[in-house]
Amino acid sequence: MTARVTLVRGDLTQQRADALVNAANSSLLGGGGVDGALHRRGGPAILEECRRLRAGHYGKGLPTGQAVATTAGRLDAAHVIHTVGPVWSATEDRSALLASCYRESLRVAAAVGARTVAFPAVSTGVYGWPMDDAARIAVHAVRETLAEEPGPVEEVRFVLFDDAAYRTFEEALAAEA
Ligand code: AR6
Fold this sequence. Notes:
This protein is α/β, with parallel strands linked by helices. It has one domain (4-176): 3-Layer(aba) Sandwich (Leucine Aminopeptidase, subunit E, domain 1). The chain is built from 5 helices and 6 strands. The chain has a 6-stranded mixed β-sheet with strand order 1-6-5-2-4-3, sandwiched between helices. β3 and β4 (79-84) form a beta hairpin. α4 packs across α5 (163-176). The longest helix has 18 residues, at 131-148. The protein binds ligand AR6. Ligand AR6 binds next to β2 and α1.
């Protein structure tokens, strides 16, 4: 059975899911937007684990398009999966990197046995990606990964911060159906 793709308008940090995906940066050491909010609400355990990752396998940081899991601290989740979206460019097509964030996050989610995964709209805030294009890429990448790599994930939830983002994802989902 293929997993369900659902939409919620709200705050990612308030969601209950096995894994919450963070729109992080390569440093893994926090920032603004979703990243700052997840660390604030999840508490210091997340940053401590990120620091350990930086001291070990990810000495140079997490490359764009990749994903890695940590504890979720006090969040209502078992894991935070950190992924680094590409910065929007008007001159260079970086869509494959944005798609990779979703694919790699779902792979990490499967590896930790997550059944429910909640995503923000990666790269659409500080990193400047236009919402309609980002929504199309996100929906397509998630559907494709779920179809090609069946695993434990039963629900992928996009959590959109405002009505406009929610409607844009709704349209992207309908267009893909
Ligand atoms: N819940 C759901 N969506 C949110 C929330 C929230 N609590 N807060 C913001 N958004 P951004 P990026 C939306 O900037 O573009 C950080 O500093 C927001 O409206 O969080 O990938 C990192 O450390 C937007 O639509 O992520 C990086 O340096 C979307 O989430 C950089 O920002 C993503 O916005 C990453 O930039």
